[in-house]
User: What shape does this take?
Amino acid sequence: MRFAGGELAKVLLVEDNEMNRDMLSRRLTRKGYVVVVAKDGLDGVSMAGSEAPDIILMDMSLPEIDGWEATRRIKRAPETASIPVIALTAHAMASDREKAMEAGCDDFDTKPVELSRLLEKMEKLLPAL
Assistant: This one.
């Protein structure tokens, strides 16, 4: 996905499962996104600041700190607070969605990821082209 001026949208994928990480990053790259990867919640928080992504895909079950805490930290920091975060989780109950939204996530999607549905959510949250 390109913004006005031609630059590609940058996605920070925070995912500890190697197979999920590789599959999703390849699929997003093919769709025209630049993908940077963090393997745990602490790296995700750090990379949100250092990489300045346009959007963050946050697994909720992560080592170090979980996705809920990582999202709270990202949303508390002035330099990263405006970055949209989509929670990714295998937990599909309404209470899981509510917990993600309370932590500051802008949207929620379930695993296994259905790419077309995730892309639709991402495009709604990304700044206008």
